[in-house]
Structure to design on (78 residues):
């Protein structure tokens, strides 16, 4: 039975290695694009997702430290 245990350990190691080395695929967008941003709001013990639409003003940085600025678009109801 040791071979089954070793096989499970190797599968776990392979899984962790894959999770740490693969890069997530992120959507391509640039300054001037209109996007919808979803973000998590935590209020006490409750969590909810809030979304808004806006225009991308700028992108800066690369890789894991990249960031972007969005100007929110307000819709006026008449």
């Amino acid at each position: 039975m040791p071979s089954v245990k070793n096989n499970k350990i190797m599968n776990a190691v392979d899984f962790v290695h894959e999770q740490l080395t693969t890069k997530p695929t992120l959507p391509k967008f640039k300054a001037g694009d209109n996007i919808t941003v979803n973000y998590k709001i935590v209020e006490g013990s409750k969590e909810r997702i809030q979304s808004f639409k806006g225009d991308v003003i700028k992108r800066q940085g690369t890789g894991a430290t990249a960031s972007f600025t969005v100007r929110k678009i307000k819709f006026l109801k008449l």
Observations:
- The longest strand covers residues 46-60.
- The first helix runs from residue 2 to 21.
- The CA atoms of residues 7 and 13 lie 10 Å apart.
